[in-house]
């Protein structure tokens, strides 16, 4: 096996007779413990939380190069255009995107990817990973992957374990029992004895003292045929439902849309529960990658660059006599004084203040918001679309004001509304507006009125983003008051 360099990291290249490894990226989570930044409409994997790149972007970069085939991404159908944009931005335009009609945990997602890959080559290697992990030492990944390739080619299901440095209660654990190969050592491929679900603090502390336990990173390397055989052996219903869902799937632009009826019959269980805890093929590679599953605000404090008082500040933040805090502002000035061990997150429509020791409890707050039917639980003030985004500025009785940004070369659907009229004012860029039989070209500071019921469309023919202010007026201003007649992105 030879080596090449990808973004500063040495990655093993496959031999010519071997098919390239297929990265499988699972992007179905919503990251509720990172609310109010991460929400169902725009979850954490699409945010730049640990670097200048989004988390899914970082994941794609790790799996780019001669060693790898184009990735398979399994995601929620509502995030399809976000994923497609991330693939494009990271040079993975040939990647395949499988759309889940509903969340059914990791077992179903992995089954879908394995079936798709096996259709071309049943023995191809899959490198399966979540879209939301961070590595402080990505340069050490190559050595672990090389060991994983060897073991996976021999029919093992390889997982990657991280040496714990704290009694973490948010991770699962793996207990190992000596090297798989006779001449191996403690850093080589290890036999798996058991998987332990997320423990309480006391049990996690005991395991840390005892030794022999690793954090379960959730990364797997396995031949597609082996994964499918183990699913057939331990939970055939999953394979049956997912296979039927693929057989009745539809191609939607560049997406593979799974059949809803078949997929909804699939059990909602994790791959750890279905396969890894039952199989006799599981092995683990201890990997000192500085891995962190970015699951809550305390994890981001641990990863962040700290000032002399241990604070991590992101955005427009001013701190005075505060210690070991994580403060993030997504816009407005945020001033903090006299606080210790606090996470404070400010967005345009919500503020979260929580002690870092209670970071895992944010999901309980989100559950309360959902029970109260608060839209902030799942929807951002800024809503992303395949053509750009819009965000609410002001809302009152019978009117609301939005900012709309349309990317160069993109256009909205040809549509009309039954309950509202609209007035558009161009702030920057150039707008091509269709209004019934008219085509209007608008420049900065020009405007157009769209009466209730008229057929209209907005397009950016220029080379810079188009920004405009939209004023809506009428008795009902919901987003569902829309009838599409033509859409570039295949939406109904």
TrEMBL record:
<dbReference type="InterPro" id="IPR049577">
    <property type="entry name" value="GMPP_N"/>
</dbReference>
<dbReference type="GO" id="GO:0004475">
    <property type="term" value="F:mannose-1-phosphate guanylyltransferase (GTP) activity"/>
</dbReference>
<feature type="domain" description="Nucleotidyl transferase">
    <location>
        <begin position="23"/>
        <end position="306"/>
    </location>
</feature>
<feature type="domain" description="Mannose-6-phosphate isomerase type II C-terminal">
    <location>
        <begin position="374"/>
        <end position="487"/>
    </location>
</feature>
<keyword id="KW-0808">Transferase</keyword>
<comment type="similarity">
    <text>Belongs to the mannose-6-phosphate isomerase type 2 family.</text>
</comment>
<feature type="domain" description="MannoseP isomerase/GMP-like beta-helix">
    <location>
        <begin position="316"/>
        <end position="369"/>
    </location>
</feature>
<keyword id="KW-0342">GTP-binding</keyword>
<dbReference type="Pfam" id="PF00483">
    <property type="entry name" value="NTP_transferase"/>
</dbReference>
<dbReference type="GO" id="GO:0004476">
    <property type="term" value="F:mannose-6-phosphate isomerase activity"/>
</dbReference>
<dbReference type="InterPro" id="IPR001538">
    <property type="entry name" value="Man6P_isomerase-2_C"/>
</dbReference>
<dbReference type="InterPro" id="IPR029044">
    <property type="entry name" value="Nucleotide-diphossugar_trans"/>
</dbReference>
<dbReference type="InterPro" id="IPR051161">
    <property type="entry name" value="Mannose-6P_isomerase_type2"/>
</dbReference>
<keyword id="KW-0413">Isomerase</keyword>
<dbReference type="InterPro" id="IPR011051">
    <property type="entry name" value="RmlC_Cupin_sf"/>
</dbReference>
<dbReference type="InterPro" id="IPR005835">
    <property type="entry name" value="NTP_transferase_dom"/>
</dbReference>
<keyword id="KW-0548">Nucleotidyltransferase</keyword>
<dbReference type="InterPro" id="IPR006375">
    <property type="entry name" value="Man1P_GuaTrfase/Man6P_Isoase"/>
</dbReference>
<dbReference type="InterPro" id="IPR014710">
    <property type="entry name" value="RmlC-like_jellyroll"/>
</dbReference>
<dbReference type="Pfam" id="PF01050">
    <property type="entry name" value="MannoseP_isomer"/>
</dbReference>
<dbReference type="Pfam" id="PF22640">
    <property type="entry name" value="ManC_GMP_beta-helix"/>
</dbReference>
<dbReference type="InterPro" id="IPR054566">
    <property type="entry name" value="ManC/GMP-like_b-helix"/>
</dbReference>
<keyword id="KW-0547">Nucleotide-binding</keyword>
<protein>
    <recommendedName>
        <fullName>mannose-1-phosphate guanylyltransferase</fullName>
        <ecNumber>2.7.7.13</ecNumber>
    </recommendedName>
</protein>
């Amino acid at each position: 096996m030879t080596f090449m360099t990808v973004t500063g990291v040495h990655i093993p290249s496959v031999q010519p007779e071997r098919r390239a490894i297929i990265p499988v990226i699972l992007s179905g989570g919503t990251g509720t413990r990172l609310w109010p930044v991460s929400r169902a409409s725009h979850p954490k994997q699409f945010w730049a939380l640990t670097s200048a790149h989004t988390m899914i972007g970082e994941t794609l970069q790790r799996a780019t190069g001669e060693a790898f085939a184009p990735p398979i991404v399994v995601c929620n159908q509502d995030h399809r255009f976000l994923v497609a944009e991330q693939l494009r931005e990271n040079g993975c335009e040939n990647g395949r995107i499988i759309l889940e009609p509903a969340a059914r945990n990791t077992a179903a997602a992995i089954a879908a990817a394995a079936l798709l890959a096996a259709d071309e080559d049943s023995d191809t290697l899959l490198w399966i990973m979540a879209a939301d992990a961070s590595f402080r030492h990505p340069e050490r990944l190559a050595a672990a992957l090389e060991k994983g390739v060897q073991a996976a080619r021999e029919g093992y299901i390889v997982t990657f374990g991280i040496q714990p440095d704290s009694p973490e209660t948010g991770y699962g654990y793996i207990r190992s029992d000596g090297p798989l190969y006779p001449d191996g050592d403690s850093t080589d491929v290890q036999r798996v004895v058991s998987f332990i679900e997320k423990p309480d603090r006391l049990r996690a502390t005991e395991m840390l003292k005892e030794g022999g336990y690793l954090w379960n990173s959730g990364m797997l390397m396995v031949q597609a045929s082996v994964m499918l055989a183990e699913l057939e052996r331990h939970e055939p219903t999953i394979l049956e439902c997912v296979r039927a869902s693929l057989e009745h799937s539809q191609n939607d632009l560049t997406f593979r849309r799974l059949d809803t009826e078949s997929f909804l019959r699939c059990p909602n269980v994790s791959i750890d529960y279905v396969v890894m805890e039952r199989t006799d093929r599981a092995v683990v590679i201890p990997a000192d990658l500085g891995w962190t599953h970015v699951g809550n605000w305390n994890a981001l404090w641990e990863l962040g660059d700290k000032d002399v008082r241990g604070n991590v500040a992101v955005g427009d933040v001013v701190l005075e006599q505060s210690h070991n805090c994580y403060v993030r502002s997504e816009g407005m000035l945020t001033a903090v004084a006299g606080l210790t061990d606090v996470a404070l997150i400010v967005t345009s429509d919500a503020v979260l203040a929580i002690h870092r020791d209670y970071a895992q409890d944010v999901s309980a707050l989100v559950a309360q918001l959902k029970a109260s039917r608060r839209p902030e639980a799942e929807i951002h003030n800024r809503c992303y679309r395949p053509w750009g985004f819009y965000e609410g500025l002001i809302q009152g009785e019978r009117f609301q004001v939005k900012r709309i940004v349309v990317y160069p070369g993109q256009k909205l659907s040809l549509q009309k509304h039954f309950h509202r009229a609209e007035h558009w004012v161009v702030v920057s860029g150039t707008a091509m507006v269709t209004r019934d039989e008219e085509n209007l070209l608008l420049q900065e500071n020009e405007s157009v009125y769209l009466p209730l019921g008229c057929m209209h469309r907005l397009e950016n023919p220029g080379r810079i983003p188009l920004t405009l202010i939209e004023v809506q007026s009428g008795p009902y201003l919901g987003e569902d008051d829309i009838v599409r007649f033509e859409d570039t992105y295949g939406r109904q």
